[in-house]
Every structure is written in structure tokens, then in C-alpha cells.
Design a protein that fits this description.
This protein has 398 residues and is an alpha+beta fold. It has two domains: 10-277, Alpha-Beta Complex (Creatine Amidinohydrolase), CATH 3.90.230.10; 320-397, no CATH class. It contains ten helices and 14 strands. It is globular.
Length: 398
Amino acid sequence: MSAPSLPSSPSLIPTAADLEGFRAAQRLAYACAEAIHAELRPGITEREVAAKMKTWLADHGATDCLHQPFAWFGNRTAFRGLIGVNQLRGFNPAFFPSNKKLEENMPFILDCAPTLNGYTADIGYAGVLGHNPILDQLMDDLAAHRELIIRMIRERRLMSEVSQAVDSLCIKQGVEPRHHAYPFAVLAHRVEKLPDAPIAPKISLGRFGIRSVLSLGREAVQGVKEGWSPLWASHQRSAHAPVPGLWAVEPHLGFRHVGAKFEELLVITEDDAFWLDDDVPHVQRWIERGVIAAPATKAVKEKVSAVAVAPKVEAAATVSKKEVVNADAKLAVKKAIAPKKVATAKAVAEKKDSKKAEKPKSAAKPEKAKAPAKAEEPKKVAAKVTNKKSNTRKTETA
């Protein structure tokens, strides 16, 4: 069900300069998460990691924050125990970093929201110290949520309907929507450029930056007047058309004692929507694992594939096992498609006389030089391709 456009204030629509400012803040946040990830060792506590993130951000230009960094380890990534208790509308002190220690093969989530030159980002970064197959599956599952959200917003569906669709997808995947444990059970929240104010920029209240809290409060008042909410959730208050501006979207999945999430900025315009940046860690992860094939990330995928060719030829000995598996999967797809193209070329060649042999002299050499090599290959393996196609996919899946 599509929804009519909302009357929007010009302040809700970011300019090109604003988008660059928000993009710089988001990249700073992800750079922090990746830098701290590299320093993680068994025995470190959530509080120590959160403190490291806070220091790193301050050292790299952050002047304020929407909230101070969070770090969750082990079962706390799925909000088990007191952290999962929905009290005070989600403002649960158990959310704050604890003395829980990181262990080998234990999942973790890092969450930070730095402000850079007045622009605020809010990101979530999931990982593991070692290996955890449940985390891998949850991260793969999140790709479908990213695609679902952008598609439904572009269709101008009610924002509450989009959030409910995310909840339904969680049920189909056999996971829990753990973002319901967040304050006000939000899937996302609004983010705006902070105005200059005489208030000291680093003052915080309950780990939340006071300037950001005041900004969100002003938006809530404006939303009440105009019929929308800056807190995007499944409830009736979000039963309105997509509101232009930037939204920090954070679907959080949980299965047993493991949780995983991504959080990034979504830009909504009066008639469209797009993710602020496709060059983010979780998208890169999905591309490497061959999970995504969405049009929104097609350009990114092509760039990665083109760059990845050279290292495999020049330094084959250093290629990881995962890269080899991904390369084999891509090669299998190419081989399955190639016979169709060659067969068509062969059918055309049989209808023509010996002039076919003279054409390579005037035609482009690179294309014609490759054609014979590919043409011979399908003759030998054409039958095997058909018979082994399903086996190849089973092998890839295993």
C-alpha cells in the first residue's frame, strides 16, 4: 500500500554538501570500528573496548556524539539476560558496556555515533574473535533486510509497514528482531546536522550527547505537528509516508545466544531513497561471500571483481581459501553461460561460407583471438556441464 507524500520542511532535505559531511562522519565511525577490531584480544572487557573507541574518535577529529560507544560481547550481542529486559521504554542501564570479557570465537558488536563538523553518523559493526558459523549466517541474512528496506521505501510504503515487513522477514529466517529491545523498539531514527550552540559540545546525559538529544526532541515536536515521528518503528506512530532526510537504520537479528546487526545512514528524498554509502564493511563482506546481487550494489560489485583479478594472477600463492571458493563459484557461472554464446556463434558460422576465416584480419584481434579458445572448450565438456551443474552448486553450498 503506497502512501501520499508528506508536506516537508526544507530543513529535512539535505544538500549535496550535507551528504558529504554525513558521509565523512560515517566513514570515520567505520574506520574506528575496524581499527579497534584489529586490537581485540581475549580477556579485554566491553568497557575497555568502549573507552578505546571513544579515545580513537576524539584523536581523529570527532567533537561530539549522538551517544558514546557501546560494545557487546557473547550472549549480550543477542540481548540475553538483563540487557533484554524492556523497561523504561528500552532505556535499560544493562545496555551500557560491562566487565564481560571477550573470548576466542565469541561474537561482538561495536556501535558508535561520532559527530564531525556538526554531522553525526551512527553505525553498528558485528564481528567475531575467531570463527562463529551462527554469526556468519546472521550476517548473510541481514543482506535481505537491507534490500527489503530500500525497496519498500522507494515504493513509498508506510514506514511502520516497512518495519513490520522486517519483523516478518525475521520470522521467515527463523531469527528474532532484537532491535525491539532498543529504546522505543526502533528500527531506525532520524539524524540531522547539529546547529551551532553555546552548549559545551561534549556534555552527555546517560551516555547520550545533549545536543543530539535536544535536536531529536525538536524533531519530535515538529513531527507531532506534521504527523510523523523521528523514531521509526512498527507501531502506529510510524504509520506515515517516508519522511525526507537521513535515517540511521539498524536491523538487529538474534539466534540463541548470538546477535548481529548493521547500522548505517539511509537518505530519503521526496520521491526516492538510497543508502548514503555502499562502501561499508557489511556490504564488502556480502560481496566477498557472494551473498548479494542487488542492483544498488551492482556497480560496487563490478569494481571489486575487476580489482580482484590482478592479485589472483600475480600472487596466486597468497590467495586465501575463501577467495579460491568465490573464484571457483564465479568461474562455474561463466562456464555455464559460455556454451550458450559459443553455440549461437557456431550456428551462425555454419550458415556462412569460408569468409568467416577472413574476418579476423579486419576485426578486433582481442575478441576474435579469444573466440576459438572458448569454442573448443564447450565441445569437450558440453555434456558434462549439463550433468554436473546441480553437483557444482551443491559443492559450492557445502
